[in-house]
Write a structure and sequence with these properties.
With 433 residues, this protein is α+β, with helices and mostly antiparallel strands. The chain has helices at 2-11, 16-45, 112-148, 153-186, 232-243; strands at residues 52-57, 59-75, 78-82, 87-92, 99-100, 105-109, 188-190, 195-197, 207-208, 214-219, 224-231, 251-252, 255-261, 272-279, 289-296, 317-334, 339-341, 344-350, 356-367, 370-375, 387-391, 403-406. It starts with a helix and ends in a 27-residue tail after the last strand. The model is unreliable at 1-12 and 409-433 (pLDDT under 50).
Length: 433
């Protein structure tokens, strides 16, 4: 009897009320499931770790203040060699690139036409001297005859006029003789200065035009000049420092010394020192800069057995380090920490809460792998807990957290300044080369 009842119950069809109840239960389950997913989604987003960056602390060192500018090496004398007479080139006395002294022969123009003109002018002078002697004899003779009443005054006056005319002609002939002698001397072209000659532009047999044809160029070697420009604010700082009673390194007894490096000075050691011997008398109104010049010794030995070529050549690029102030405590950061935002220099700083922010800075001189910096706004100094991002700058976002890691051997950094830079780099260098 129970089995029959069970079979009847299991075969009974589902009523409409039961079907509605089942649909409601499924809808509630799905709603709860969606709500649970929505609540767990933010938890997944916050689980992403903050980006990792390398940081390094500020370094404080005693360092002088410098300005680094670019310049050019120029010779003191640059002479274009031209012929002062026209003619055909007959001799070349030098090798291309040879060192020469003042007065050394460089070229010879065929002297035969000049010799002929000189001989002609000498003959004219001798002729006029003979006429002068004859006029003087005649004047002496007629003066005696007139005293005896044997000659007229008119004849005496005519010889006196001829003598005066001869005086003018003789002076002109002698001037022409000197001119022809000069032309003969100009046939041998000599070096006007000590220096190095360039390559010859013409060979024997070429026609040379007077004062037009450039045969070669001679430049002086020792000393040389280094020219550079500074802006108006820098000029005022230099002048005020030179006028002060206490002179910083590089300024001695009113003299300004600068340090110079060439293109191979990758470490910015500036191994060459010289004195500034020229400051222009006015600023360029278009660029608001003024030209300064240093005088560099450039010794050399032209001895072919043991040659010592000069180090500096005209036209070389130069880096110039100009002293601006006394050594003082300065903040330094590694060079990779400096970033650019258009025309501004910025640092990415990590505070005590590991949040990054930017700070605009003024960049000073480079010392080894370090650069001196100071905030553009003095009212917002750097914090004692601030650290500088040196790698991973592209991962930084203003006001966002990061995971800082202290930079060590992964990048080229030093915990101290280069040797000798902890104090003034000029402490062991003489003030006057």
């Amino acid at each position: 009897m129970n089995s029959d009842l069970d079979s009847k119950c299991s075969l009974a069809p589902m009523t409409d009320g039961a079907r509605r109840l089942l649909v409601s239960a499924v809808a509630c389950f799905l709603t709860c499931l969606c709500a649970g997913c929505a609540k767990t989604a933010p938890q997944i987003a916050t689980a992403v770790p903050a980006p990792e960056v390398m940081v390094f602390g500020f370094q404080t060192r005693m360092a002088p203040e410098y300005l680094e500018v670019t310049g050019r090496i120029n010779s003191v004398f640059v002479v274009d060699i031209r012929s002062r007479v026209s003619g055909y080139l007959s001799k070349v006395f030098f090798r291309d690139g040879q060192f020469v002294h003042k007065g050394d022969a460089l070229y010879e123009i065929d002297p035969r036409p000049s010799l002929a003109k000189l001989a002609e002018s000498k003959g004219t002078v001798e002729k006029l001297l003979g006429e002068r002697r004859f006029a003087e004899i005649q004047i002496d003779r007629y003066e005696k005859l007139i005293a005896k009443g044997a000659a007229s005054q008119q004849e005496l006056d005519s010889y006196r006029a001829k003598l005066e005319e001869n005086t003018g002609s003789l002076a002109s002939a002698r001037a022409q003789q000197d001119f022809n002698q000069l032309n003969l001397d100009f046939c041998t072209i000599v070096s006007p200065i000590d220096g190095q000659v360039s390559r010859t532009q013409f060979q024997v047999g070429n026609l040379i035009n007077q004062d037009q044809t450039t045969l070669t160029t001679v430049v002086s070697i020792d000393p040389v000049f280094v020219y550079f420009n500074v802006d108006e604010p820098t000029l005022l700082r230099v002048l005020k420092t030179m006028r002060s009673t206490s002179h910083p390194s590089g300024l001695t007894a009113g003299k300004l010394f600068i340090d110079v490096g060439l293109v191979d000075d990758l470490e910015r050691a500036y191994p060459h020192r010289c004195v500034v011997d020229f400051l222009n008398n006015q600023l360029d109104a278009q660029t608001a800069t003024i030209t300064m010049r240093g005088r560099l010794d450039n010794p050399y030995d032209p001895n072919p057995d043991q040659p010592k070529p000069p180090l500096f050549r005209s036209g070389m690029f130069a880096r110039v380090r100009l002293p601006l102030g006394q050594p003082a405590q300065r903040l330094l950061v590694p060079e990779p920490a400096i970033a650019s935002n258009q025309d501004r220099k910025i640092l990415w700083l990590v505070d005590a809460q590991n949040v990054v922010s930017t700070r605009e800075v003024l960049v000073g001189q480079k010392i080894g792998t370090w650069i001196t910096v100071q905030p553009t706004d003095p009212s917002k100094p750097f914090g004692t807990s601030d650290r500088v991002v040196v790698r991973g700058l592209q991962r930084c976002r203003e006001g966002k957290p990061v995971t800082p890691r202290l930079a060590s051997d992964e990048i080229v950094l030093l915990n101290t300044l280069p040797a000798g830079e902890a104090a003034s780099p000029d402490a062991a260098r003489p003030d006057d080369p």
